[in-house]
UniProtKB/TrEMBL annotation:
InterPro entries the record matches: Acyl_CoA_acyltransferase, Diverse_Substrate_AcTransf, GNAT_dom
SUPFAM superfamilies, per the entry: Acyl-CoA N-acyltransferases (Nat)
Domain of life: Bacteria
Keyword terms of this UniProt record: Acyltransferase, Transferase
Molecular function terms, GO-annotated: N-acetyltransferase activity
UniProt protein name: Acetyltransferase (GNAT) family protein
Domain N-acetyltransferase: 10-163
One Pfam entry name: Acetyltransf_1
Length: 163
């Protein structure tokens, strides 16, 4: 639990079945922020992952005074070069009206606790270079790496025209 600048506490916990609607509203906000269209298939798929204890993707929800104000999606990943594992933060979002309350910091601190408890050596994530608000937080709590990210699309199916 973290104290916010407004005097309330931020509670960060794992998502639960009853969080579906609040999670969906926050996830829509996250996708809006990155200019992604609303897509029920995506929401259904990701929620299915979060609800499935056998799936690698896990979720956190942050609350202030019982109201959901932030989410994170994360997963464990192997680090063969180090012979250990890490936690990969896929998504982190704080509702616009909750920014500046310490919600993002509380989520990152909770992820650091999860990494410790699971024996992971670090928490890693990427962010948009232009996301200066988030980066100001990240620069305070983590170390920026020199690594450059690449995306490679799957090979085309033989006999199938390119889209």
């Amino acid at each position: 639990m973290s104290e916010t600048e407004r005097g309330s506490s931020v509670v960060v916990r794992g998502v639960a079945a009853e969080d579906r609607d609040a999670w969906a509203a926050l996830y829509r906000g996250y996708r809006d922020f990155y200019g992604k269209p609303h897509d029920e298939r995506v929401y259904t798929t990701v929620w299915g992952w979060l609800a499935d204890p056998a799936h690698q993707t896990r979720g956190l929800i942050a609350e202030i005074d019982g109201s959901p104000v932030g989410i994170a999606h994360y997963r464990a990943y192997a680090r063969p070069i180090m012979g250990d594992s890490g936690i990969y933060l896929d998504d982190l979002f704080t509702a616009a009206d909750a920014r500046g309350t310490g919600t993002g910091t509380a989520i990152l601190h909770r992820l650091a606790e999860i990494a410790r408890d699971e024996g992971a050596s670090l928490v890693r994530w990427i962010t948009d270079e232009q996301n200066t608000t988030a980066r100001s937080l990240y620069d305070r709590v983590a170390q920026q790496t020199p690594w450059v990210t690449y995306d490679l699309r799957p090979a085309e199916q033989p006999g199938r025209p390119a889209e």
